[in-house]
Amino acid sequence: MKDIGTVALLVLIVVFSFSGCTLLRLREEVSTHEARVAEQEAEVRDAEKQMENLEKEKNQLSSDIRIQQISLDVLKMRLDVLKKQTLQIKPADPEQKQKKENFAKQIEEQKRKLDEVEKSKNLAIEEKKRRIEFLKKEIAEQLEIALH
Q1: Which are the contacts of 139, defined by CB distance < 8 A and separation ≥ 6?
Q2: What distance in Å separates the CA atoms of residue 94 and residue 145, rounded to the nearest whole number?
Q3: Rg for the chain (alpha carbons), in Å?
Q4: Closest listed residue to residue 128, CA positions, set 110, 139, 116
Q5: What is the pTM of this model?
Q6: Which residues span the domain enclosing 114?
Q7: Which of 15, 60, 70, 84 has its CA 20 to 30 A from that of 51?
Q8: Could you read off the pLDDT of 32-91 as tens digits, one per residue?
Q9: Measured distance between the N- and C-terminal CA atoms of the chain, rounded to whole angstroms
């Protein structure tokens, strides 16, 4: 009888020891998951902040193009900044990634057109100005589309 009681006691001790180890391991896993979630939440906040900054830059550039005459160099510089900010954004899904890539390509295409007009030796100064103004309007329209 005493042996059965001792064996039962040993079995209980072993069972409690294993369950204690399991609980500790589960706590560690929960802590690890909580840390990962906190890290991902921080990344999401950073991405949202980047998106806000990009939206502000798009709005400001669009407004500046429509309202004031900005120099060609300033326009190209700001297009570079906008493209850089666009490429820094981490897309959440393939659709956003495609939109981001398309927008970056549009920016690059507009810069190419501006450079082409600027470097053209066959165009009169007035024709260059007319084409640059046209491109500015086109860029403003593309920015408006990208904002919505």
Answers
A1: 61, 65, 75, 79, 110
A2: 20
A3: 30
A4: 116
A5: 0.55
A6: 2-147
A7: 70
A8: 988 998 998 898 888 888 888 888 887 787 776 665 567 777 888 888 888 888 778 787
A9: 82
